[in-house]
């Protein structure tokens, strides 16, 4: 019963799409019909501009924090990572958007930061430095997920169940970037500014 309730709450919070709210409701644009077709922050910047992209990131980042705070308050610390996993499912596969959501980077960053800034700061800096140096947002995101697994499992003091969900969250994040990985390997991935 508790697992089901946490799943429902987390999925619904996760399915609140920043790009949908800003794009469809305020700007009359659906980011899924332009650019890469993804309903995440990077494509929101391409399709909705800087303001729309920042708004999308803020909403998705904030809902990760809100989810953690709500679950911790009403259900305790034990199932936080399970809740985050369920929230990311809602973000990536929102039912009202025909299961075409984002890739979970901004929401995962917000949720992990709410759980432990200490364990999240280095993966975030790895993401930031990778993006600034290579101009590949996708590569930075992939390295963020990989480094998060390492830092949370090696340096975090969480239960085995929590560690399993940390791995699942990060594997899902990497899996959602599978098309980007193919383009990176082939040398035709989009860089910031539209260059390959």
From TrEMBL:
Uppermost EC category: transferase
Lipid biosynthesis keyword on record: yes
Documented EC number(s): 2.3.1.275
CC terms in the record's Gene Ontology section: plasma membrane
Pfam family, one: G3P_acyltransf
Localization: Cell membrane
Pathway(s) annotated for this protein in UniProt: Lipid metabolism; phospholipid metabolism
Annotated transmembrane regions: 5-27, 47-70, 79-99, 105-127, 136-155, 161-177
A biological process term (GO) from this entry: phospholipid biosynthetic process
Membrane topology: Multi-pass membrane protein
Keywords per UniProt: Acyltransferase, Cell membrane, Lipid biosynthesis, Lipid metabolism, Membrane, Phospholipid biosynthesis, Phospholipid metabolism, Transferase, Transmembrane, Transmembrane helix
MF GO annotations: acyl-phosphate glycerol-3-phosphate acyltransferase activity
Reaction catalyzed: an acyl phosphate + sn-glycerol 3-phosphate = a 1-acyl-sn-glycero-3-phosphate + phosphate
Family note: Belongs to the PlsY family.
PANTHER family: GLYCEROL-3-PHOSPHATE ACYLTRANSFERASE-RELATED, INNER MEMBRANE PROTEIN YGIH
Record text on subunit structure and interactions: Probably interacts with PlsX.
Function text: Catalyzes the transfer of an acyl group from acyl-phosphate (acyl-PO(4)) to glycerol-3-phosphate (G3P) to form lysophosphatidic acid (LPA). This enzyme utilizes acyl-phosphate as fatty acyl donor, but not acyl-CoA or acyl-ACP.
HAMAP family assigned: PlsY
Name used for this protein in its record: Glycerol-3-phosphate acyltransferase
Source species of the chain: Peptoniphilus lacrimalis 315-B
Gene that this polypeptide is encoded by: plsY
